[in-house]
Fold:
Amino acid sequence: MELFGIVIPLWAAFIGIILIAVVAWKLIKFAIKILIVVVVFFAILIGLDVIGVFDLINKYIISSFV
Structure:
């Protein structure tokens, strides 16, 4: 196998492809974990807003300082 004018053994090409696939898979798994954390965080924020926690904070805590 020739790449950029350099002859690369076929076994080295397969190892390189496998390493690239493993690294890509680890990056994808990390991105999915980050996405899950962000989705859960925003779901918690939406839930707190629905039950009115932020209104209570605004009404009782912040307005007492003004």
Remarks:
- The two ends are 74 Å apart (CA to CA).
